[in-house]
């Protein structure tokens, strides 16, 4: 019974802090544009091809090449 006297207030505190974080995210605009990121990934950005700051192309280890048959 002593364990419940400790766990119930802790559970209520965690639940209220989660609810507070949710309302804070609503007021700070975290959920304003839900479809923007989903659509943005589908748009080809041809202006960035080979631009500064891009990572170099990944080098394979050769296992992806087809082996020649004699």
From TrEMBL:
InterPro entries: Cyt_oxidase_maturation_cbb3. This is Cbb3-type cytochrome oxidase assembly protein CcoS. The gene is ccoS. Residues 47-70 are annotated as: Disordered.
């Amino acid at each position: 019974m002593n364990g419940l006297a400790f766990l119930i207030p802790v559970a209520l505190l965690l639940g209220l802090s989660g609810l507070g974080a949710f309302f804070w995210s609503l007021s700070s605009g975290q959920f304003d544009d839900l479809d923007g990121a989903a659509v943005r990934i589908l748009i080809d950005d041809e202006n960035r091809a080979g631009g500064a700051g891009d990572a170099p192309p990944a080098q394979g280890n050769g296992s992806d090449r087809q082996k020649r048959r004699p």
